[in-house]
Design a protein that fits this description.
The complex is a heterodimer of chains A (386) and B (199).
Chain A (H helix, E strand, L loop, with lengths): L4 H36 L3 H14 L5 E4 L18 E10 L10 E11 L7 E9 L5 E2 L2 E2 L2 H20 L6 E6 L7 H4 L2 H16 L3 E7 L5 H10 L16 H5 L12 E4 L12 E7 L8 E7 H4 L2 H16 L8 H10 L3 H17 L9 H9 L7
Parallel strand pairs in A: 2-7, 7-8
Antiparallel strand pairs in A: 1-9, 2-3, 3-4, 5-6, 8-11, 9-10, 10-11
Helix pairs in contact in A: 2-6, 3-5
Chain B lengths: L6 E6 L3 E6 L12 E5 L5 E11 L3 H6 L7 H10 L4 E12 L2 E3 L12 E4 L2 H8 L7 H5 L6 H15 L2 H18 L4 H11 L4
Antiparallel strand pairs in B: 1-2, 1-7, 2-5, 3-4, 3-7, 4-5, 5-6
Helix pairs in contact in B: 3-5, 5-6, 5-7
Classes of the chains: A alpha+beta (386), B alpha+beta (199).
Chain lengths: 386, 199
């Protein structure tokens, strides 16, 4: 049975009407938020105190914390970017499926290495790690999608740290997504978090310019910071003071193509785990053009913030590489890392066949797919149903 | 005999096949070149390249809109990304146990079989083994650019032949072309006009 479009028709109409009526409210909230931004632009110390004060009452506060640049900072990229070694990593995964005929997981990490200005063909590497046996089991049962995702993030960082040590500076490492390992289940895995931090420390020691790239971010970290003033500094209603407004909506008119925002420190429930030189910071960046702005949030550790040359190089490399890709700006190395890493369905099927063949060679009986999976395969359905 | 493969087989039937090869490969076959595909049972299949296509994909289509693509990105797309060149090959004969046949191959090669360019010696051995009867498959196949293909093939044959043998080879080829196309005057003139370029 396909989607019931008759049911949905009225709901879609309501959704459209709702969006139109919200436009007025959003516009009004955006104007207030812009006023707050220019009013607070230089009040950095006050705002830092306000965050501390709010944090005492709301440990879950997630917002931006100003560092040393005015909130309305917008700095252009120096182009062309200086030559450097670019290492971009991305990962994909196969989460163990209890309905499948063989129980295994996979973490696949693709790394794209480019020496800008060399004219040489870039290199590409893939590292595949099979998860089986005890590595699939946790105290709460079979490894979840979140846990396999965490293992993937850790492997990405470890591989980048190892490869970066073999390169000559300046070296820039890029990953898709934040540096902060996000989500409650992930923080429960202390061992993996420790490995991730060790890899970050290795990158810090080697002076590698490290960044996480978040394309079209919907975060409202700066907006929440400004909201603290509105909610009286309690931090409990700060994220609702300018409801519906994102940082990008707020900064869109401020950041010209190639420009970055001020640097902010990240305040989150897990940010205190990133200590010393690994403390998480970020800035917003417009990697687009006048006709097509494209915004990103770039997460960086403190050791990059403290090095103005490294920061400038990172900004210019991201802008330059994003412009290499045509009318839809996005860093070319990250796109290629994704292309290298992604595990397609035929590859997964081939891997399953290889594992089954090995189990047979070892004299082990083959498991069957679950009854549910068997019938789903026959139907050829791709719908995910519980 | 050259041992470095120029590409691998993508798909095939008993008439011809499509070969994928990388841009960076030295001595990539040209239009009209003769290729061989060794088979596991000892058979060798022979064919001529009649089309060479450069494939694209979504990323390449995006990159062409960039005013200045960096050399590294050009190299990346030429060398690292998926099969950039597809060559279409029409079969002209086969060999098994030292016996050459200029007829349709007994079975198509298999996916990912290696393809090699023929050396001058092989080329001459094949063309002189019969009465150029393989020209029939080229001239009767409406999907092939027959005039240009025969011309390119003859250019390669004449280039490989000893000076004293060239005239005889050319005469033999033209005799066969005239015999095959005696009832098709327009195509005969088409082929002869093209071949006159190398006379």
């Amino acid at each position: 049975m396909p989607v019931n479009y008759i049911n949905l028709r009225d709901q879609i109409k309501s959704m459209g009407e709702d969006a139109r009526s919200r436009q007025g409210q959003l516009h009004e909230a955006l104007l207030r938020c812009r006023e707050a931004l220019s009013r607070e632009a230089e009040n950095l110390i006050d705002l830092q105190r306000l965050v501390e004060q709010a944090l005492a009452q709301n440990k879950a506060l997630r917002c931006a914390v100003p560092v040393s640049e005015p909130l309305t900072t917008h700095l252009p990229a120096g182009l062309p970017a200086p030559d450097c070694i670019l290492l971009a990593a991305d990962g994909s995964q196969i989460t163990p499926d209890p309905h499948d005929s063989v129980l295994y997981g996979l973490v696949n990490v693709g790394v794209f290495r480019m020496q800008t200005g060399s004219g040489k063909a870039p290199d590409q590497f893939t590292t595949s790690t099979l998860l089986y046996g005890d590595s699939l089991q946790t105290e709460s049962g079979l490894a979840s999608e979140d846990l396999v995702g965490l293992l993937r993030d850790v492997r990405e960082r470890q591989i980048l740290a190892k490869m970066a040590q073999q390169e000559t500076a300046p070296v820039v490492t890029l990953t898709d997504g934040p540096l902060e390992l996000f989500g409650e289940p992930r923080l429960k895995s202390d061992r993996e978090f420790g490995q991730y931090m060790a890899a970050l420390q290795d990158l810090a020691l080697a002076g590698v310019i490290t960044a996480g790239y978040i394309s079209r971010p919907r975060a409202a970290l700066l907006v929440t910071l400004l909201g603290l003033r509105e909610d009286g500094g309690t931090g409990r209603g700060a994220d609702r003071a300018f409801l519906g407004i994102s940082d990008i909506m707020l900064l869109a008119d401020l950041l010209a193509p190639g420009e970055r925002s001020a640097i902010f420190q990240l305040q989150s429930m897990s940010s205190n785990k990133y200590e010393g030189r690994t403390a998480l910071h970020f800035f917003y960046l417009n990697v687009g053009s006048a006709s097509r702005p494209a915004f990103a949030r770039v997460e960086i550790p403190l050791w990059v913030v403290e090095d103005p040359d490294a920061l400038a190089l990172l900004q210019s490399v991201l802008v330059e590489q994003s412009r290499q890709i045509g009318s839809v700006p996005y860093p070319y190395p990250l796109l290629r890392a994704h292309e290298i890493a992604v595990v397609k369905l035929p590859e997964k099927q081939e891997l399953s066949r290889m594992i089954q063949a090995e189990l047979l060679r070892q004299g082990l009986p083959l498991e069957q797919k679950s009854e549910k999976q068997f019938h789903k395969d026959i139907l050829g359905t791709t719908r995910k149903t519980k | 005999m050259r041992s470095i493969a120029v590409g691998r087989l993508l798909r095939a039937n008993t008439t011809g096949c499509t070969v994928g090869c990388r841009v960076d490969q030295q001595d990539s076959p040209a239009f009209g070149d003769m290729l061989r595909i060794p088979q596991a049972d000892g058979t060798t299949l022979y064919g001529l390249v009649y089309e060479i296509a450069i494939e694209d994909d979504g990323l390449v289509r995006q990159l062409i809109s960039v005013p200045q693509v960096s050399p590294e990105i050009i190299e990346d797309n030429r060398l690292n990304r998926n099969v950039p060149i597809e060559m279409s090959v029409t079969f002209i004969g086969w060999e098994r146990g030292g016996i050459l046949s200029q007829t349709r191959v007994p079975h198509p090669p298999l996916t990912l079989d290696e393809i090699f360019a023929c050396e001058a010696e092989e080329l001459l051995r094949f063309t002189s083994s019969g009465r150029f009867s393989y020209l029939r498959s080229l001239l009767r196949n409406e999907d092939l650019p027959a005039a240009d293909l025969v011309t390119a093939h003859l250019r390669q044959v004449l280039g490989a032949a000893r000076p004293g043998d060239a005239a005889q080879l050319m005469q033999g080829t033209l005799n066969e072309v005239v015999a095959l196309l005696k009832d098709d005057y327009p195509q005969l003139m088409d082929v002869l006009t093209a071949v006159s370029e190398i006379l």
